[in-house]
Specification:
There is one protein chain. The protein is an alpha+beta fold. The chain has a single domain, classed as Oxidized Rhodanese, domain 1 (3-Layer(aba) Sandwich). It has helices at residues 5-10, 24-27, 45-56, 68-72; strands spanning 12-13, 37-39, 62-64, 79-80. The chain starts with a helix and ends in a 7-residue tail after the last strand.
């Protein structure tokens, strides 16, 4: 999730990781290039940017959740507050 920490604190998908776009270069080493990542933000714009940066750095299995968290809220995907766990 490339959103700001305050967005993450309000609500996020259960077990999602906060991965602010502002710190992608510093935190990229935390990710495994061989894993699949579902990427979302509040509205869908920053996730596209994050995916572009990750692809330029060798990540290939990236899924953008179109329309961001707004679209997720319309599903039955569990969400939580103040939960930060690895995928």
């Amino acid at each position: 999730m490339p959103g700001r920490k305050s967005e993450y604190d309000v609500q996020h998908i259960l077990h999602a990781r906060s991965f602010p776009l502002d710190f992608v270069n510093q935190r990229m080493k935390e990710l495994n290039k061989e894993e699949r990542y579902y990427v979302h933000c509040a509205g869908g714009y920053r996730s596209v940017i994050l995916i572009s940066i990750l692809k330029a750095n060798g990540f290939t299995d990236l899924i953008n959740i179109k329309n961001g968290y707004k679209a997720i809220q319309e599903t039955n995907i569990p969400s939580g507050h103040n939960v930060e766990m690895k995928k």
